[in-house]
Amino acid sequence: MTVIKKLNDLNIILSKLSRKKILSLVPTMGSLHKGHISLINSALKYSDEVWVSIFVNPTQFNDINDYKKYPVNSKEDINIIKSIDQNINIFIPSIDDIYGKKIIRDKFNFDGIDKILEGIKRPGHFDGVATIVKKLFEIFNPNFVFFGEKDFQQTMVIQKIIDGYFEDIKMIICPTIRAENGLALSSRNSLLSKKAKKNISIIYDSLLFAKQNFYKFSDKELKKIIKSNIEKNQGFLLEYFELRCSKTLKICNQGNKQNSSCRAFICVIADGVRLIDNLLIHNEN
After folding, report:
1. Is residue 181, in this structure, part of any structural domain at all?
2. Sign of torsion over alpha carbons 224, 225, 228, 230
3. pLDDT of residue 19
4. Cα 163 to Cα 110: distance, rounded to the nearest angstrom
5. Cα radius of gyration rounded to whole Å, the chain
């Protein structure tokens, strides 16, 4: 296992790699869990060389306090990766190595998919995601990159970056990994209070309810029922629940339900912790 913390050292190593080797990159912000492990295991199946980057990217945070309290434990992350396969390589850069002296968020055109769902309450978030992803892709020039379905909107933004700048990169979207209660695994889950954890299954239950009642209720009726069920729990607030096409992220409504690959997107604030999830609830005929 190689753990690299300096960009210059990484560039030397990458320059010596055979062009015939298939290189995969798993970008993370650390605080690794079983969802990340799933991404890494998938990368191992595709590649001769696997790199995991660990970098808490400041430009994708709208709130400096949210950035500061993001869980960081590099030693534990290294041990987790080592337990998967000792041939995996790790890049843990400094902010200076990635951004230099000025931390600047680049601007991109995502044809509006960054202005909905997560983009409403987090303006500029996806520009920040794209900024770091583009930098990492330029550094590694990977054959494959791996991201989780849980952040589905993010994967669509990243695909825009790939289409615009990196036509030789293939993105693999891996299924969401869930806890026994259905909660999508996320580094933010560690911030949940004991009280919130008792009722947190309501998020996934709401997605399943939407899937089971896709034709029974209109999208507005579904949202009303789901909002009521969620907010019965003290400290829980539904920020959004929307049905959107998996291919375009356009709204799925009564008129186009049957002909759409429809996905339910949800954001719940549970005792101050903001959690997102999504589920494919209908495949187009």
Report:
1. no
2. negative
3. 82
4. 11
5. 19
Residues 164 and 45 in one domain: yes
Burial tier of 28 (Cβ tally within 10 Å: 0-12, 13-18, 19+): buried
Q: Among 134, 152, 174, where does a domain finish?
A: 174
CA distances from 193 to 189, 197, 229, 269 (A): 9, 6, 20, 12
Which strands sit side by side in the sheet containing 262-270, from one edge to the other?
A: 236-245, 262-270, 273-282
The CATH number of whichever domain residue 154 belongs to comes to: 3.40.50.620
Q: What range does the domain containing 271 cover?
A: 187-280
Q: In this structure, are residues 174 and 146 in contact, taking their beta carbons and an 8 Å threshold? A: yes
CA–CA separation, 90 and 1 (whole Å): 8
Which tens digits make up the pLDDT trace of 270-280?
Answer: 999 999 999 99
- Mark which of 130, 146, 174 sits at the end of a domain: 174
Which residue numbers are catalytic?
36
Whole-number pLDDT of residue 283 = 84
Q: What is the DSSP letter of 102?
A: S
pLDDT of residue 254: 62
Give the position of tokens 């005792």.
271
Residues in the chain, pLDDT under 50? none
Domains in the chain, number: 2
pLDDT in the model for residue 1: 86
Q: Kindly report, residue by residue over 114-133, the tens digit of the pLDDT.
A: 999 999 999 999 999 999 99
How far apart CA 145 and CA 50 sit, in angstroms, is 10
pTM of the model: 0.95
